[in-house]
């Protein structure tokens, strides 16, 4: 027979409608929709950031320097190529309010601007005045402040506050600034002032921590790529960093890309759960077609024709499910576009984007092929003589070798596509490995549960409801397999996410404050250090003080080659890094390789590099680094590696140099203070009063900001996991619906033997509860294992089981199976035994 014959047979089979395929379509559509929806939102964000790159950046291009302003040569070059240049200085400080003998202080991210700011977009203020009007206020300079900080300090319009030693008048509340997304993560709310008003504040002294940005408005048609190449070639050695409107907020773009990639992986987990439902639906459908297949074989249909007939039929339905998923995944983001845009601090541009839809469709096609292949392969084994019930169930467990090979190729293709599209190969491979491991564990668990149920059936003598439940679980029909695999995989994803999220929160909220300092103090001038130390050392509430000289520099070259060409986009190379100097290593420094320079060393510059980061960068002892500090290149040799633990929120430097290497470079000191929480307010009051230029960062406040950011990420991930769990619940419903006939026959037999409806219902409930508890426990074990692996090996933290989440997983498993099973229990209970048994003769 030919493919045309198979197509004709498939078309005739499809005339029967979609009966038996609703769950099939729902599982496939929901999984595809989740991936398409996440991809569409990510594409909308990327399009919005691309379209408004100049507004996010605050200009067509931006040149950035650390610790200094552009010199005359750099400023002249920028002005020659731009229509207009706006200079901005950005730093952290303390806003201080004196009121009736009481002093209030709040950490703020200060932006000093000139008259040209903003080049692109507009600043929104309350009251609605211009920024120029707001920053000029009679005898004192004006300032605008974020409402959250103004409210915290109790400031009203017209009130005065200080930055350093300079007084300002609050003239307006800052509602929005056009370039806030491009400014990155700040530890404090924003305050904007004129840069020239900061001249007498003592905040921009040599060595103070600040950054300057020069926003450029360029002539129409400027070649941004060529201009970037020219800027980097001319000023690379002076520490200039360049950005332009092609990528106005690279940090946000990286975050969106990584979060979007992770959510797609969560969506793939949901699609895998849906795949189990697809496989179960196809298997149940083909089991109902045993007599049809056997009849076709008696009429001369060969194995290929049988396979092609049902492959075409299932393929047509799969394409319908994928199409429904694409429509849903494209429509939902468009429908909720206003709500999504309002909740995001970055621009979005919602439209129909073909790329994410094509990606979701490809995932759907591969998943449908992967999970329908084996049931279809088993269907071709039905022979003409096999006109008896459950012939498909008695087929061998593994199909022909060619189908096994094809399955492995499909798995490889699915993983390869995920690696290519996610942008996070390592995470994708870990996720794929975790899913496959979870499926194997769940399949083995389903097999084990059936064996245990069979062994436990005799022991349940005298308890008929339990005995019937165990008999059904351990019987020939694979009720345990569908429940444990579908619900178990969904719960596994949710359990793993719950354990990871819970451990991160525990580390941030409980463990980190126990080892973290109370305060970071920055911008301490060298001549202020004696008085600073006297105040803290005389306080019995202070248990520890760590201080170090603080400079910042950019690694521009490694062994004479451009650093990014040697080590890629590692975080150490993406911006300026903290640098210190030390004559000798302190008691908490552990040198892991090489030797520290001798005391009094004044030879060629040497560097002690953080060991873990050096390994990631591929550095070794004897490598030469070029570090640009304050526009000056320092060529130094790596002579030692040392352990640096950045997880304690204490002082940690990637690079430490010998003191002579940085001799003469203006710098300040950084210090961490470990003190009792009750003494923190007094410490801040005394030090801030004595040294107004010092900026204090309260670590607990920084932890709260990180926690709030984690809340948003966790919420997005939980929604993705919920979609996976919903798919698992749909699979359970499908399995319950498919088994309704068997339960009807079972109920009829039990009624005939004298069982009451209540006892039969109790048996159904026990069966569902046992399967749900088993699925929940197995999922919990797999989820805890996955969470432990991520926390231990990816995040390198300590792991502890989060028991509230764990108990919720098991409870959810029991509830889900009970709901799905009991929803299809009423008709079997209501059926009349005589009618059912006559139909089975």
From TrEMBL:
Upper classification of the organism: Bacteria, Pseudomonadati, Pseudomonadota, Alphaproteobacteria, Rhodobacterales
InterPro entries per the UniProt record, alphabetical: ABC3_permease_C (IPR003838), MacB_PCD (IPR025857), Membrane_comp_ABC_pdt (IPR038766)
Domain annotation ABC3 transporter permease C-terminal: ranges: 266-378, 723-828
Membrane topology value: Multi-pass membrane protein
Sections of the chain in a coiled coil: none
Transmembrane segments: 262-286, 307-340, 360-379, 400-421, 427-449, 764-790, 802-826
Chief place where the protein resides: membrane
UniProt protein name: FtsX-like permease family protein
Domain MacB-like periplasmic core: 25-233
Entry keyword annotation includes Iron-sulfur: no
Organism: Thalassococcus arenae
Keywords: Cell membrane, Membrane, Transmembrane, Transmembrane helix
Pfam families to which the protein is assigned, alphabetical: FtsX, MacB_PCD
The keyword Protein biosynthesis is annotated on this UniProt entry: no
Subcellular location: Cell membrane
